[in-house]
């Protein structure tokens, strides 16, 4: 859920006010636009705003004066300033005075959106750190890491031993098992807990932007780099950086990551200087990094640096005794979040039997989604089999899953169109990965979808690209 909802724009140019109102409203923000600093202060006095986006140069009351008076009256307000060419020194002065960041005109509207997203992430981290300092909410959301199984207990004992030291940890496990939550628990139990925990999915950022995101960049380092930018290593300084899907890092970024682990220093893109950082790195992967090393897709020296200690998170099918406990926690959570007038009390015996027998290929994430659906659909105090997703109770189609010689799915007694489409999609993805020997970039081209969409589908279906490559 977005932390920032209300945004006040202050700029004397009508075109800027109009464009930002359209763009930010389209992104789901509640936007109000005014023409100068005095009008902005009056508006801030009438309602609570999460963010003020203000031009530096305005009539009657300039952006610097507005910044100081607004933050004095509203200490929690996040301020982003805009500056035209020639007023950059004022923008830097505004940042020194407490503004979060500045954007230089002319700018692309998505630049403002990107800055707001980064400011929102910073606010989320600050709130999390305040909760940890105050001993408030648990570090791991209740219901995600619950369980009494021996396999989960062994993982949590391992986490307790590793948390106090700065050893680099590699977390392995299938999609949906809760690898990020284990990383957050390592951070929360460590001496670094009051400082930032920063998470990044290496597979979700385009390769050309990844180094800039991780290490930052200098002004003018590349096209559109109008300002210098801090990277995620700098944001996590003193705390923990969680690199999810670390196997997706391109080789140039792997070299830089190795330097950080060896020397404790980074070099922003386009800079000649190096910066010292104190960051604990925790990485996660659902791929076999050892096999990637054999293929030449992952550096062997980096592999050994990351894999000092391996924490394997067991899939849900290996701890089925935890399913009822997790289901109960999710039911109570969704009773609150969905504002049910008559709360669901729990699972019927039949539903619990089905859930305990199911393999849960999507692991805890799939269970969470199933419980949200069930709480929405339940008419009485208990969840019934009919409230569960069809894949848990529908009779499977006879014959093997796959395609016939004509390339169409086998048709059995189950005539669910949605299920057939999912099975067809999964079979095509597996076939493409086999054809390309596990190369996801080429597989995405074969399937005529984006690389990011393919990564999402691989996670959704719990597909192991390396295993498919071995079947080729």
UniProtKB/TrEMBL annotation:
Record carries keyword Cytoplasm: yes
Localization per Swiss-Prot or TrEMBL: Cytoplasm
Source species, domain of life: Bacteria
Gene Ontology biological-process annotations: phosphorelay signal transduction system; regulation of DNA-templated transcription
Keywords: Activator, ATP-binding, Cytoplasm, DNA-binding, Nucleotide-binding, Phosphoprotein, Transcription, Transcription regulation, Two-component regulatory system
Primary location group: cytoplasm
Positions where 4-aspartylphosphate occurs in the chain: 55
Any coiled-coil regions, as ranges: none
Residue ranges constituting the Response regulatory domain according to the UniProt record: 6-120
GO cellular component terms, A-Z: cytoplasm
Any one GO molecular function term: ATP binding
Protein's name in the database: Sigma-54-dependent Fis family transcriptional regulator
Organism (species): Myxococcus llanfairpwllgwyngyllgogerychwyrndrobwllllantysiliogogogochensis
């Amino acid at each position: 859920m977005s932390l920032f909802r209300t945004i006040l724009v202050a700029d004397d140019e009508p075109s800027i006010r109009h464009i930002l109102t359209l763009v930010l409203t389209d992104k789901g923000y509640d936007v109000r636009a005014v023409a100068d600093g005095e009008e902005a202060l009056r508006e801030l006095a009438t309602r609570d705003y999460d963010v003020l986006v203000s031009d530096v140069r305005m009539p009657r009351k300039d952006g610097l004066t507005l910044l100081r008076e607004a933050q004095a009256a509203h200490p929690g307000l996040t301020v982003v300033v805009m500056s035209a060419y020639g007023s950059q020194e004022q923008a830097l002065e505004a940042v020194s005075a407490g503004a979060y960041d500045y954007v230089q005109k002319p700018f692309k509207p998505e630049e403002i959106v990107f800055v707001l997203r980064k400011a929102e992430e910073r606010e989320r981290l600050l709130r999390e750190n305040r909760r940890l300092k105050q001993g408030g909410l648990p570090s791991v959301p209740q219901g995600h890491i619950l369980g009494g199984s021996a396999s989960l207990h062994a993982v949590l004992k391992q986490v307790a031993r590793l948390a106090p030291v700065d050893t680099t940890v590699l977390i392995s496990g299938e999609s949906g098992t809760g690898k990020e939550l284990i990383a957050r628990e390592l951070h929360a139990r460590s001496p670094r807990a009051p400082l930032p925990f920063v998470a990044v999915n290496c597979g979700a950022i385009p390769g050309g932007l990844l180094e800039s995101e991780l290490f930052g960049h200098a002004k003018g380092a590349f096209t559109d780099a109008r300002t210098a930018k801090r990277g995620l290593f700098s944001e996590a300084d003193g705390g923990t950086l969680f690199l999810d899907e670390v196997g997706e890092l391109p080789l140039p970024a792997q070299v830089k990551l190795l330097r950080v682990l060896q020397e404790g220093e980074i070099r922003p893109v386009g800079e000649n200087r190096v910066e010292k950082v104190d960051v604990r790195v925790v990485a996660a992967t659902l791929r076999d990094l050892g096999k990637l090393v054999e293929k030449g897709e992952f550096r062997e020296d980096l592999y050994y640096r990351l894999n000092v200690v391996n924490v394997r998170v067991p899939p849900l099918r290996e701890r089925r005794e935890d399913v009822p406990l997790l289901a109960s926690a999710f039911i109570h959570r969704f009773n609150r979040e969905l504002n049910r007038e008559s709360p669901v009390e729990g699972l019927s015996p039949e539903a619990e039997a089905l859930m305990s027998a199911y393999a849960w290929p999507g692991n805890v994430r799939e269970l969470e989604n199933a419980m949200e659906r069930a709480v929405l659909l339940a008419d009485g105090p208990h969840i019934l089999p009919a409230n569960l997703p069809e894949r848990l109770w529908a009779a499977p189609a006879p014959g093997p899953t796959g395609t016939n010689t004509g390339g169409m799915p086998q048709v059995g007694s189950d005539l669910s169109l949605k299920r057939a489409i999912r099975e067809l999609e999964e079979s095509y993805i597996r076939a493409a990965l086999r054809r390309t020997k596990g190369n996801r970039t080429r597989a995405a081209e074969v399937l005529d979808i984006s690389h990011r969409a393919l990564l999402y589908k691989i996670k959704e279906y719990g597909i192991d690209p390396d295993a498919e490559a071995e079947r080729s």
